[in-house]
Amino acid sequence: MASKSKTKTAWVCSECGYDAPKWFGQCPSCKAYNTMKEFRIEAESSNRYARAEQAASATTGRGRAALAGTSDILDLSKIEAGTLEFVYSNVDVNELFFNLEDSAGMRNKNQNVRIIYNREMPECSISTDKNRLTQVVSNLINNAMKFTEKGSIQFGYHLQDNDDFLHFYVTDTGSGIPEEQLGNIFGRFVKLNNFVQGTGLGLSICQTIVENMGGQIGVTSKEGEGTTFWFTLPYIPTEKVSLNIKEHEAYRHVDSKEKLSILIAEDNDSNYKLFESVLKKEYTLIHAWDGEEVVQLCKEHNPHIVLMDIHMPKMNGYEATKKIHELSPETPVIAITAFAYAEDEQRILNGGFDGYTSKPIQPGKLRTQIIELLKKRLLFM
């Protein structure tokens, strides 16, 4: 236990000896470190269970929660060190929010709750940090899912009256927040319900992200009726861009009766089994264990599409994709990546790939992406 220091307002951290607020017991750095250890143990435990069961998901729900918690702790460390990254690019907000609606819908296991994106602006392309915007909105939606048992979770955005800022919101019909807790809701390690998964860091990190991007964040709530979290960001319009799929002039003719083939470059067996469980019924699958093998198998089998893990042994995904396009320019390649920052995304999109999806994969979204890309690249006879 932490012991009292010479001052009345602080205790001494039980681990490092530095002053710590009384309610912490430990200083923020030690608290973050120990929380990270707990979540890493939980993640490893969940992943062992997933491998043992060989389930249809390489990462279980508990594992995803543990990894998300670890990500929060890492972000907190970067905030304290002043090294949190912000990389701006042109973002189609409607496209991004439709994707968020799809992914939230797949995570939602409660049939009594609808998740709805309210599109209020026909078009909106802005200069912003796509990953950080996604992080904030996803965090607010996830929080709403934890505290909403029936009704709806609605999110969207609109242009404020002064035309200088976009107003984003996530509103739910959940349990609401007691009035006396509203003032502390953005504090670190604050949890409304200790029995709900999470680190208590998400809202604090959201506040830091929004303020660093030039906006404000707030909340309105009525206990028993629901909650609305909102934030603003500068409105910097740009030309509309679509980052999901590149347009190509090269087409491939195929027999409409032919079963299409997918070459999957993945060096992790449990990850490949996940792809197999999702795709084996509709496609013929070919498995490559390293970058050199994927190029060789592409020569031998001429697959209709390639799913390429970025970090492959012997030859990385960028080099392998370049060689594949030299052999067969019309063969589309989708990058499979666990990238964390926008600069990684930009490198992927500029590295010759025709699209990308991040780990852990979302089966429905992956199927849709494959179909849409094949429609654009194949001519059926």
Briefly summarize what is shown.
With 381 residues, this protein is of the alpha/beta class. 39% of the residues lie in helices and 22% in strands. It has helices spanning 28-53, 61-81, 93-107, 130-147, 202-212, 269-279, 291-301, 317-327, 342-349, 363-377, and strands spanning 3-4, 10-12, 19-21, 89-92, 113-118, 125-128, 151-159, 165-172, 217-222, 226-234, 252-254, 261-265, 284-288, 305-309, 333-337, 355-358, 378-380.
Radius of gyration: 23 Å
Order of helices and strands: EEEHHEHEEHEEHEEEEHEHEHEHEHE
Helix content: 25-40%
Q: What is the strand content?
A: 15-25%
Structural class: alpha/beta
Instruction: Characterize the overall form.
Output: elongated
Instruction: Tell me the distance between the termini.
Output: 74 Å
Largest sheet properties: 5 strands, mixed
Helical region count?
10
Q: Average pLDDT, to the nearest integer?
A: 76
Outline the low-pLDDT stretches. Answer: 1-10, 18-25, 39-69, 241-249
Number of strands: 17
Strand order of the largest sheet: 5-7-8-10-9
Characterization of this structure:
With 381 residues, this protein is α/β, with parallel strands linked by helices. Helix content is 39%, strand content 22%. The chain contains ten helices and 17 strands. Strands 5-7-8-10-9 form a five-stranded mixed β-sheet. The model is unreliable at 1-10, 18-25, 39-69 and 241-249 (pLDDT under 50).
